[in-house]
Amino acid sequence: MAVDAGVHLGAITRILEETQPKGLGQTEELQLPYVLQSGPFAGLKVFSASPKTNAARIHSELIDTYLITHPHLDHISAFVINTAGLSGPRRKKLAGLPGTIQALKTHIFNNVIWPNLSDEDHGAGLFTYLRLNEGGSLAMGNMDGYLEFNEGLAVKVWSVSHGHNIERVPHRGSGSNTRFGSMEAQSGVMGFGTGMLSPRSIAHHNTSSPSIAGYFQQQQFMAQDRHHSVLPGSNAPSGGRGSGGMNQLGGVHSPSEAACVYDSSSYFIRDVDTGVEVLIFGDVEGDSISMNPRNLQIWQEAAPKIVTGKLKAILIECSYDDSRPVDRLFGHLTPSFLVREMEVLADEVKAARTRMATDKGRVPTDGRRSSKRKREMHDDTTIASRRMASRAVTRQSGDSVTEPVSPRTLKAPRSDFFGGPQNEDVPDNPHLATPTAQLSLQDIERAYPTANPTVNLPEPAAPPPPPAPADGPQLTGLKVVIIHVKDKMNDEERVEDTILDELQDHEAFMDVPLGCEWVISEVGQSFLF
After folding, report:
1. Which member of 87, 126, 229, 427 lies 3.0 to 4.6 Å from 117 by CB, making a disulfide possible if both were Cys?
2. Cross-strand pairs, 190
3. Alpha helix (H) ranges present in 332-379?
């Protein structure tokens, strides 16, 4: 299984050139087929002395599924180019959120940019699309939403935000009106809670008088008051998404003119036999500066897995060091924002430890009380209140006048990017990534809060680590692997080294350190959990 495929066959070939013994097939000790003894492919049986031939076999025969986080070229180009030339014995599976799959169909495999090599729309049939429901689906996989693509590996996907488009036009992503299941589709084409409108109704509203526009504006503000609470120290409704344009009639914000938040993905990948998991992100931005913050739901799912020792590593991007201005991040992370996200995760882990300790020490007198407690734990109000409180913590940490800066980084303060009118221009429509025609696991839980399915997971190979002290480091035993680092292409210090120094410096200045292990990814690296 591969997550994204921006650089694929070339990187595999390079790794084999560096780790495969020279002179394969020329001596009795190195006779073919040969089992590799070192490198990330140790244990793999190769049948050729050529690294390119062996790399082609890995691509065509061994890699079965590609999990695509988002359709940007640097995450898909190798798969696109190599698919036609290196067909294998089975169709490849290209998996992702529905919006990602639709973008690949429309803009890449469309017989214009590249031939339609899929098995849809009379294509060549070299691969098949797999559309995933965010947060899992009861229709496929286990009751906890994980879907087993390859034998022994199960997956669950969540959407995340990857910046927003510079131009204020409808586009793929969280702000697009064309995505059924989004808040815009449910609230009406203009997003004013008027229901789905026909083309004639749309034309009528476009030509309506300012008084009617004012009515819709009033309804919008009333809906905001009902469904959104303003975070302390911020004008932003929690979970909101920035509105960018102003309608000419009555100054009403029009979603079609708003900046559109771009969707990326994160994947929980589980080893079915042991229950051990890793969490891998595509491109992602920090919630504290996002127009549609969505990382919190992922940290809330990850926290109990860290407490029980199931989640061993998080692979997450940190594209730039702290010298990068906020307005030039383009939906990426720097060490300051990554540490802020890890602080939110640590808070969630601490809360999860407290809940688990409380539940373990509480002995129900009868089965009915036990069932009632379980229902209360999964009650929507309880979950919503926890998420609101966590968002408040996130926003409070992000509303400082100046952005956190590494002690090793000397640069001018960037207060422009956090204060003034920009903070007032914040979106107010939450994101719902699951189409209305499909029910996700979250939808079922909201509809039936009393349902409490039990999932029997295999025990991990090693016992979970002992609970961390209540006020000590919460992420002890967790690896945070930094990926997607963008090289500056100059003679200065390696940006990877700068990022690692800044991460460690930020943690050193905390009252309570995170406790995680920071790891910079390198070509040919492998991890065993």
Report:
1. 126
2. none
3. 335-361, 367-377
- Encode burial over 156-177: b for 16+ CB neighbours within 10 A, e otherwise: bbbbbbbbbbeebebebbbbbb
Contacts of 511 (CB under 8 A, 6+ apart): none
Residue 289 corresponds to which tokens in the numbers above? 């500066």
Q: CA 238, CA 426: separation in Å to the nearest integer?
A: 10
Q: For strand 479-483 and strand 517-520, is the pairing parallel, antiparallel, or unpaired?
A: parallel
The size of the chain, in residues, is 529
Q: Which two tokens stand for residue 254?
A: 């029009």
| Per-residue confidence in pLDDT tens, the chain, 529 aa | 999 999 889 999 999 999 999 999 999 999 999 999 999 999 999 999 999 999 999 998 999 999 999 999 999 999 999 988 777 788 999 999 999 999 999 999 999 999 999 999 999 999 999 999 999 877 665 668 899 988 899 999 999 999 988 776 554 555 433 333 333 333 333 333 333 333 333 333 333 333 334 433 444 444 444 333 333 333 333 333 333 333 333 334 444 444 689 999 999 999 999 999 999 999 999 999 999 999 999 999 999 999 999 999 999 999 999 999 999 999 999 999 999 999 999 999 999 999 998 887 775 555 444 444 444 444 444 444 444 444 444 444 444 433 444 444 443 343 343 333 444 443 443 333 334 344 455 554 555 544 444 445 445 555 555 555 568 999 999 999 999 999 999 988 999 999 999 999 999 999 999 999 999 999 999 999 8
Number of other CB atoms surrounding residue 341 within 10 Å: 24
Q: CA 494, 402, 348: angle at the middle one, nearest 5? A: 80
Give CA–CA dist 213/248, Å, rounded: 9
- Helix and strand element counts for the chain (H, E): 14, 13
For residue 529, count CB atoms less than 10 angstroms from its CB and return exposed for 0-12, middle for 13-18, buried for 19 or more: middle
CA 506 – CA 410 distance, rounded (Å): 14
Strands 311-317 and 277-281, sheet pairing: parallel
The answer to whether the beta carbons of residues 86 and 113 sit under 8 Å apart is no
Which tokens in the block code for residue 255? 């979603």
For the beta sheet containing 147-150, the strands, ordered from the edge strand earlier in sequence to the opposite edge, are: 147-150, 153-164, 261-271, 277-281, 311-317, 479-483, 517-520
**Identity (one letter) of the amino acid at 466?**
P
d(CA 482, CA 503): 10
Q: What b/e string do you get for 141-153 counting C-beta neighbours within 10 Å, with b at 16 or more?
A: bbeebbbebeeeb
Q: How far apart are CA 267 and CA 277, in angstroms?
A: 10
156, two tokens: 């669950």
User: How far is residue 43's CA from residue 468's CA, in Å, rounded to a whole number?
Assistant: 36
What's the rounded Cα separation, in Å, for the pair 384 and 446? 11
